Each structure stands twice: as structure tokens, then as C-alpha cells.
Amino acid sequence: MYKIVFIRHGQSEWNASGRFTGWTDVALTDQGRDEAKKAGELLKDYLFDLAITSILKRNTETLDIILSELNLDISTENYWRLNERHYGALQGLNKIETVKEYGKDQVFQWRRGYDVKPPLLTENDPRHSSLDPLYKNIPKEYLPRGESLEDTEKRVMVCWDKNIAPEIKLGKNIILVGHGNSLRALIKNLDNISKEDISSLDIPTGIPLVYELDEDLRPIKSYYLGDQEEIKKRTKEVKNQIEYSDK
Q: Is the C or the N end of the chain the one with fewer CB within 10 Å?
């Protein structure tokens, strides 16, 4: 049996201010840092050999806090393919104002529709990732101008197949700090969730989600760590803010 622990990063500055974040590189809030610390406390009885996350600072911050709480010094791998879904021209916009302008149904489709892309960035938009030093070694044709969840799933699963699954099969205990949509993509594939049903999957921030896998890396079982009533409350909070919230 293999095991991997997923954690969604803590609250970011743009989560708190109600803006679409996507690939914008923003830091955690104090609440987000506290969520990461509590996640570390829940993992005191776990041993890890490898840590994996995206290249965005809200994830690297979350991971650093957890590893510090666990007093662990282990190898860490950062992959741009594990970044959040790219929200295109929506990035930086206020969510509530966007709902007022375009309507709740349209924004819901941009955010949770499986194959619906948001308005795309233009090639010369200053928000384009090709202008960000983080991506200087990534060919421009790989850098999205906006993504559907389907697009996000394709790049995330490349990382799973190439970089994550082989490490699991070597017997490594892995902690993976993800984003709402990168985790949604992974869970969709692990649990074989349909594209129609994946839009209703809500993932609370800062709560470890354990997957126990068989020899073919199919789930035996999965479960959140911590107080189950608190988990239900946090998940409901995510569900209730879906009209406005950047996952």
C-alpha cells in the first residue's frame, strides 16, 4: 500500500481581498499561515521523504510552515505544472464586481465549468507569464493565457505521470501542497469523477487529505485529518462562497 497527503494552501492575500488569483504570485495572510501551522500539527505522526508543490509563493510558504512545524528537512520539488488554474484576463479582478458585471451563472461557468475558458490574456498583456522571471526557462507556447479545468487537468496529470507517480512507486511518503484546482484535477483522476460532477467538489484550505493507494495507484480509501465537524464547516464555507471565491 502507498500513501500520499494532499493539502490545499492557506488563505492568500487575494483570497482575503476577493480577487481572482490564478497564476498571480501572492503571499499568505496571517490566517493562511495559521492554517498551515495547524495542518502541520495534524501531521505530527506522519513521516515524509519528499515534499512537492507548485512554484507559487502561497504554496511554498504553506509547505515551509508545515515542514517547520514537523521539524523536517527533506527534499522539495517545485513544478509549474502544479500551479493553480490560470484565470486569464480575470486575474486581479474583484470577484463580486465581476459577478455584478457578467452575472453569477457566467462567473460560475468560468470558475467551475469543466471545459469553459475565462476571457484570455492578450499576448502583450503585462500579466502574461512570459514576462515573469519565474517562467524564464519555460517555452512560451507552454504558458497559458487562460485555462479551463480541462486544460489544468491535462498539465497537472503530465506532472503526476512523470514526476509524482514514479516517486510513490519507489515507496516514498509524499506531502503535496496544491491549489484548489490542481487538487481538483488530481482527485478527479484518482476517484474517477465525471466532468459533470467535478464542479461540485469543494476542498477546504489547510486540512490534510490522505489517500491510501493500491499497487496500481488507485484509491483504497481517502480521508481528511482533524475534527470532522470542523472539516464539514470549512468545506461548507468554500461551497457558500463559490459565487465569488477564487479557489
A: N
Q: Which of these is catalytic: 9, 61, 86, 179?
A: 9
- Residues in CB range of 164: below 8 A, 6 or more apart: 4, 52, 174, 176
Answer whether 70's CB lies under 8 Å from 40's CB.
yes
Report domain 2-167+193-209+231-240's class.
Answer: alpha beta
Is residue 9 flagged as an active site residue? yes
Distance CA 89, CA 80 (A): 19
Domain boundaries, the chain: 2-167+193-209+231-240
pLDDT digit string (tens) for 23-82?
999 999 999 999 999 999 999 999 999 999 999 999 999 999 999 999 999 999 999 999
This prediction has a pTM of 0.93
Cell numbers for 141: 507556447
* Active-site choice (35, 84, 147, 167): 84
Helix (H, G, I), strand (E, B) or coil at 17: helix
Bridge partners for 5 per DSSP? 175, 210
Q: Residue 218 pLDDT > 80, yes or no?
A: yes
Question: Which set of grid coordinates corresponds to residue 230?
Answer: 470542523
